[in-house]
Design a protein that fits this description.
Elements: H1 2-31, H2 34-74, H3 92-108, H4 113-125, H5 129-144
Length: about 150
């Protein structure tokens, strides 16, 4: 729950920032000179890029949570079997062992979104965020019946 509160607080701050930047862009365009109109147009692009990024990130998180709820209802969520150090960090060898099993499971059933979801969790536990995100994107696409890119 704390993560959601932080996420929404940061999203709200970003929206305020987008409004402020957008208003500055409009003010620059209103000046009417070639330089200020050019800068104003360039400044206006930033809020649109930021809003698009915020939308895509929020959609990804909602889709991943939807899959997690469905997998939980089926009783298929991965069990936390990782060994942790006294400080609470995940033991690297333990994460690698679980990852190896999850990868083999995914290779055995490459069209099952559930195996890709569990592989994404294993990637995350192994601290490989880019691959975790790609595996989760693949799980979402398979679940929704959308075409899956080969590089994912």
């Amino acid at each position: 729950m704390r993560a959601k509160i932080v996420y929404f607080a940061l999203a709200a701050v970003l929206v305020v920032y987008f409004v402020l930047v957008g208003s500055r862009g409009v003010l620059l365009i209103e000046q009417g000179t070639v330089v200020t109109v050019t800068f104003g147009a360039a400044v206006l692009v930033l809020p649109f890029i930021g809003a698009w990024f915020l939308y895509k990130t929020t959609k990804f998180a909602r889709d991943a949570n939807r899959l997690a709820r469905e997998l939980e209802a089926e009783g298929g969520l991965p069990v936390d079997e990782l060994v942790r150090t006294p400080s609470g960090r995940v033991d690297r060898d333990s994460a690698d062992e679980v990852f190896t099993r999850r990868k083999a499971e995914t290779e055995a059933a490459p069209d099952d979104w559930r195996t890709w979801f569990r592989l994404a969790v294993a990637y995350h536990d192994a601290r490989d965020t880019p691959r975790a995100r790609k595996a989760m994107q693949r799980a979402i696409a398979l679940h929704d019946g959308r075409p899956v890119r080969v590089d994912a």
